[in-house]
Amino acid sequence: MWNWWTARKRRKWAELSFPQDWEETLHSDYAEWSRISPEMKSSIKRFIQIFIREKNWEGCGGLQLTDTMKVLISAQVGMMVSALGPIYFDHVLSILVYPDAYRAPNSTQNQMGIVTDRGSARMGEAWWQGPVILSWRHSLEGARNIDAENLVYHEFSHQIDMMNGRFVDGTPPMASEDEYQSWSQVMNHGYDQLRTRIRQREPSVIRRYGLTNPGEFFAVSTEAFFSAPGQLLIEYPEVYQSLQTYYRQDPASRRDSLREQRRA
Length: 264
Ligand SMILES: [Zn+2]
Prior knowledge:
Elements: H1 2-15, H2 20-29, H3 38-54, E1 56-59, H4 67-81, E2 94-98, E3 102-103, E4 114-117, E5 121-122, E6 124-127, E7 132-135, H5 136-143, H6 151-161, H7 177-199, H8 214-227, H9 229-235, H10 237-247, H11 251-263
Parallel strand pairs: 1-2, 2-7
Antiparallel strand pairs: 3-5, 4-6, 6-7
Helix pairs in contact: 1-3, 2-4, 3-4, 4-5, 4-6, 6-8, 8-9, 9-10, 9-11
């Protein structure tokens, strides 16, 4: 019954016409928007229509949450899952948004399904079968692609990670044992490479925070994959390829074709 209602509601929402001001928001503030194909845009727009209505959105710390904010956050989530089939993070009922980094009363960090990022002044959190909490300032900077960091990709990669259980182990759900094996080989190797780069004081597009644990390695690699894909492909080609296979998209090629268009 539930599934029937959910599917019907989603179909109806997906068919609604996409508001012009939402479209303008994507054009002006989501850097990746100009790089993707019309088909991908349509698929992300359908995702936004559903995600924005299905989740319980709450502004925290005095933030007046606007449609613009919801659209930009939803678009980034939609980008991640646009090729993965119908994923709407059913267990994430609420999305809480603070104006900036925030201090939360409960300051424990654990491995049991609550992932808190950035110590006591937090930028974001992802709870197992619970909310995602985001700083609006950092969500906007991510959308604008200020650098290789992206809070929304980060927190939702923890949610993807937790789709196969509460442990944030750096492994999203996969179809077969072989896929799990090759994934862990590549990620372990990437992890070692990151450690070596940090030790040798070489630059790394996967930031140092990835050394915290395999879950954080997956999250910061995902940030780099979508935000600085060309650099990830150069520095960590195997990690790039595994993420490309997993997310079923090739963001580095979008940058290449853009460069070619500009040259032409
Ligand atoms: Zn994290």
